[in-house]
Predict the 3D structure of the following.
Amino acid sequence: MPTLNDGGVADAGQRHRDAMASRSRAQQSAAAEIGTIPAVADPQRRTACGKSLLRYLTTYFPESTGLLPFSDDHKRVIARIEQCIVHGGRFVNAVYRGFAKTTIAERAALWALSYGYRRFVAIFGAEATLSSLMIESLRGELEDNELLTEDFPEICYPVQALEGKVQRCASQTHDGERTHIGWKADLIAMPIIHAPEAWLPGYAAGTCTPASGAVLMARGLKQASRGTKKRMPGGKLQRPDLYLLDDVQTDESAASHSQTESRLRIIRKSILRSAGHFDSVACVLNATVIEPDDLVDQLIGRAENAAWQSERIAMIQKWPDAHDALWMGAYKTIRQKYDPDDEADQTRAAAEATEFYRANRAAMDRGAQVSWEHCYAPDTELSALQHAYNILIDDGLDTFNAECQQKPMDRAATEGMLTSAIVARRLNGYPRGAIPAACAHMTCHIDVHDTLLYWMICGWTPELTGYIVDYNTYPQQREGYFSVRDAKHTMVKACRDAQSKDGALLAGLVATIHALQSRTWRREDGMALPLGPVLVDCGYKLDVVAAAIQQAGVPNVWPARGRGIRAMDLPIREWTYHPGDRRGHYWGVFHRKASHALVVESDVNYWKSTVRNGLAASIGDPQSISLFGSDVTAHRLLIDHLSSEIPREKEGRGRRVEEWELRPTRENHWWDNLIGCAIAASMAGARIPGAAPPAPAKRRIRLSELQRQKRGQR
């Protein structure tokens, strides 16, 4: 009999545990095995849809792309996507909101993989979160779409066998072999299934089904990488062979030249060149034009992008004859005539406008041509034409032109703002540091922050035509695109001997002033120009700036502070000037007792509008302002700064003033530099021909002197 000492009981316990583990593995293996896959319900339907993406979309997705008849515009877009999937190429479809472009792209990706046209489809959206929603949508189709389940059981049946439990992917088997199915937030790996000839005609028994091992990935555009690949069973590395780009820009990125250029570089380098030299990449971009010269607008309209085949599709292709008389006349009046304090009255007005349209529909429809006649809300609208006019009336022409017509308005012309596209066209071809012979003045402005100093040098003609000659930061940054908040090489790091932030700021200012003054500035004809005036922003720390200027010991360097003088404020020309103060053109030099310093103060709203006009003018025009160089990508951060503010016209004190405000998420430091350089040019004597001279200064009369004058009059 076994005893405790000879280990018999222990051996029996181990045998029991081994038996239980073996039984558990057998149960898990049985649970992981998906068993026999059903036969294809309708092989003819499946085969026919494999020859036509349009038929696939309308047949297998009756609740989305098959819900309403497609327009001729839809059919052309779908045909281009099919051409790209099957034969390759580059295509841009610029379409209006509500065109179902995302839904079409998602299901086109599934078509490409299901029939074996592509092995790795990568969908990229503007942001990663939006791309994850696309994967979620397709997962729902594979799990719940009855028609897909009937005709594509080799895909849907293994997916449904997971029962939503991702952890089952690693152990799932078919006929005892792993399916290698993948089911992640941003990726679907199709199951590897060997086809029984009985349920998939045309395939020899044991061969892999068309979609076996195919990959669908969805990410944000900024996650695109040349190294995107997936290791397939057997060791092969599969790279994407089809890219579907869906609305890859945001409102913010479309308005930013630098962000637009950054996204275009990702497309050109990380995506289009991802296959190397021996394979080509198929790419379709479906998007809406948001801003003039944005990513989509450039791919459609520029000669350097001729490799892209494209079409711009508008919601209204021909306006009706009654556009002014009925639609924008009586119909608009009826729709907009409601009591804003009555929450139900707007609905009443909309219903009355619909009844007006119903009564006059023949006249109001005459001559009109819309892209998609089914694009409207049948519960409240009668036609796609009415739907378009409701958007135009409710949201305005700017929104309608951008979102519906694919022709966004140039708001610079309507709002007086600078866009990235306008500034980007102001490159004059001069090398960095070169000064045109027409320049008579060299000015500088330094914008002050704890982290960085932003500086700019400009040359000016006597008539205030300006040339940006050089700009940078102290300390200089290694990155091409940065902000004052995330700068890695800061003032404190550059001035390690300083004991405080103020000490580092003082040392940095002195070093910057000396570095700029020590350079020799020569015009293209060889004549040397002195640098000055130099204005240093003191709105942050006047005492430190004044101390740095004194320590630098360089002449013609001034503390400066900009004032955003509003329409309701007292104009700078009406300020009181003391003896020793100096009055200029929308600027003045004032003695500030607190710091014992002379400070240049200016009406920056006026000067921002003046500089805006200069940047908007064509190169060569009087008072135009241009940038050095010919490579726009070298100026992408500067261009963002120069287009960072928006003017708002306000009225007060009997005058109209453009009051400038910073656009959200933007920085404006080099914009402030350029404004300061223009003010310094005015101090040096440059003047816009025809501009009114400064008003005579009002001499301040002391109270005692006023009392003496009154006594003398008596």
Notes: Confidence is low (pLDDT under 50) at residues 1-7, 22-30.
